[in-house]
């Protein structure tokens, strides 16, 4: 049986904390004083009441690996008045701990942003099979991988995808990119802000989650014909509209959740027993 510390070590070898944003909070975040005595791992994007109820109902789950950190800012007190803290205390009573990956999973080669690039390039079968897809991508901001093994070469924040067909650069209509994203992410709707004169795109800047700060720091709007992310603020959308750079928004966790099945395979190959949460869902829906 794998202990929480062993699970955490495996997760952190696959998703090194050193690749996470300096502002992020990843790794072993919640370690109860006792163990539930089982070692199945539940994968989720967000630790919500529905997910914790799922853990309570399934006595084979001993650990949670969450994408988003349930503990993010510094705490001055810990009590039941805070909904997130209350969930963690429920897990503690069961003996279930929490490990978080967040931007470490975004940054690694074959991580969340590479998955999104493969969705846009319509190369998801190669990504699923772990085969070379020969995508022309580079990081919007490169990470320092000098202390990691060579498998993490090319890691970093975001991706800049140059669309290609048969080895040559090509362009795609915005409508086709929207279609590919909706199909690949299982969505019926996207949000788009576009310059009507933009007929098609050759380069796409990609950032899972909320891409505003990365797009600014990397000046992605000067490098890409299109920006794709989960969410942007109202004023960020206006800024890119004025720059005549179209934006496609999928919804924050919609840009991340589809990666969980691929993460499951990675963890299983490393010796863990894993299931993807059925209760984990985006908090917003189209009505």
Keywords:
Udp-n-acetylmuramoylalanyl-d-glutamate--2,6- Diaminopimelate Ligase, Chain: A, domain 1; 5-stranded mixed sheet; 287 residues; 21% strand; globular; alpha/beta; 6-stranded mixed sheet
Principal-axis shape: globular
Give the oligomeric state. Answer: single chain
Mean pLDDT across all amino acids: 94
Gyration radius, in Å: 19 Å
Main β-sheet description: 6 strands, mixed
SSE order: HEEHEHEHHHEEEEEEEHEEEHEHEHE
Q: How much strand content do the residues show?
A: 15-25%
Which class of secondary structure composition applies to the elements? alpha/beta
Supply the number of structural domains. 2
CATH fold descriptor of the largest domain: Udp-n-acetylmuramoylalanyl-d-glutamate--2,6- Diaminopimelate Ligase, Chain: A, domain 1
The number of helical segments is 10
State the name of the first-level CATH class of the largest domain. Alpha Beta
Strand order of the largest sheet: 5-8-14-15-16-12
Helix content: 25-40%
Cα separation of the termini: 45 Å
Compute the number of strand runs: 17
| Low-pLDDT sequence parts | none
What is the architecture of the largest domain at the second tier of CATH?
Answer: 3-Layer(aba) Sandwich
The CATH homologous superfamily of the largest domain is termed NIF3 (NGG1p interacting factor 3)-like
Keywords: Hydrolase, Metal-binding
GO molecular function: hydrolase activity; metal ion binding
Organism: Protomyces lactucae-debilis
Binding site for a divalent metal cation: 68, 106, 252, 256
């Amino acid at each position: 049986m794998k202990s929480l510390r062993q699970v955490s070590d495996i997760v952190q070898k696959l998703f090194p904390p050193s690749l996470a944003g300096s502002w992020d909070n990843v790794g072993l975040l919640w370690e109860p004083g006792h163990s539930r005595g089982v070692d199945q791992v539940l994968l989720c994007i967000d630790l919500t009441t529905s997910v914790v109820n799922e853990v309570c109902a399934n006595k084979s789950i001993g650990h949670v690996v969450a994408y988003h950190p349930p503990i993010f800012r510094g705490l001055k007190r810990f009590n039941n008045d805070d909904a997130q803290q209350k969930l963690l205390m429920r897990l503690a009573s069961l003996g279930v701990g929490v490990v978080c990956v967040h931007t470490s999973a975004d940054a690694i080669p074959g991580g969340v942003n590479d998955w999104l690039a493969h969705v846009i390039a319509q190369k998801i079968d190669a990504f699923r099979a772990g085969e070379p897809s020969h995508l022309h991508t580079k990081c919007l901001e490169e990470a320092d991988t000098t202390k990691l093994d060579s498998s993490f070469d090319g890691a970093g924040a975001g991706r800049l995808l140059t669309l290609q067909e048969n080895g040559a650069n090509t362009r795609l209509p915005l409508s086709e990119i929207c279609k590919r994203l909706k199909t690949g992410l299982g969505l019926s709707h996207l949000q788009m802000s576009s310059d009507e004169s933009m007929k098609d795109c050759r380069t796409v800047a990609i950032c899972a989650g909320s891409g505003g700060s990365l797009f600014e720091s990397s000046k992605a709007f000067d490098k890409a014909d299109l920006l794709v992310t989960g969410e942007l603020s109202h004023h960020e959308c206006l800024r890119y509209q004025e720059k005549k750079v179209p934006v496609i928004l999928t919804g924050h966790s919609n840009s991340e959740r589809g990666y969980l099945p691929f993460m499951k395979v990675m963890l299983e190959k490393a010796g863990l027993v894993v299931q993807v949460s059925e209760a984990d869902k985006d908090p917003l829906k189209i009505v």
